[in-house]
Amino acid sequence: MKIESTEFTQADLQSFYDELFDHERFALADRLENASERLARIGPRIKAGRGAGAWSDHEVLAHIAGLSKFYGVVIHRISSGQMTEVDLLAGTNLRDTTIERMAEIEPSELLRTTQADHARTVTLLRTVEAASLRREAKDASGGSVSADFLARYPLINHLEEHVDQLERSLG
Description:
mainly alpha; Four Helix Bundle (Hemerythrin (Met), subunit A); about 5% strand
């Protein structure tokens, strides 16, 4: 074996990390695309209406529509350098109001707009440079959050959980 690691520079190491990060962002894009396709398959079975005590399937879809739009826009703005500060708690506090408003929209229209939002975010994930996705914004809580973190957890992971929920509910 040829010993070469002793010749690595910081730039080589960063390039290696960028390659790993690129691989991972493509995997994230695939996960988002897959969850969106699953939602497209079950979405037409969602009936309009409110839940009595728990969220109805329509309200879950309204929540998905809201979070998909919100996080898609925030991920784009942070990764492009347009946003350097974010208040995630304020966005979360608006969740129920957003669901109420979005649940006024027919499920078929919610599904259509959500699919378009997902497609834009998938395209972003497949085309953005690794360094841009690692870009961070200061959160109002005092910490910071990267575009990658927001794509991975509050958008994709959260979406997958709600699609699982709808699949169970709709059989």
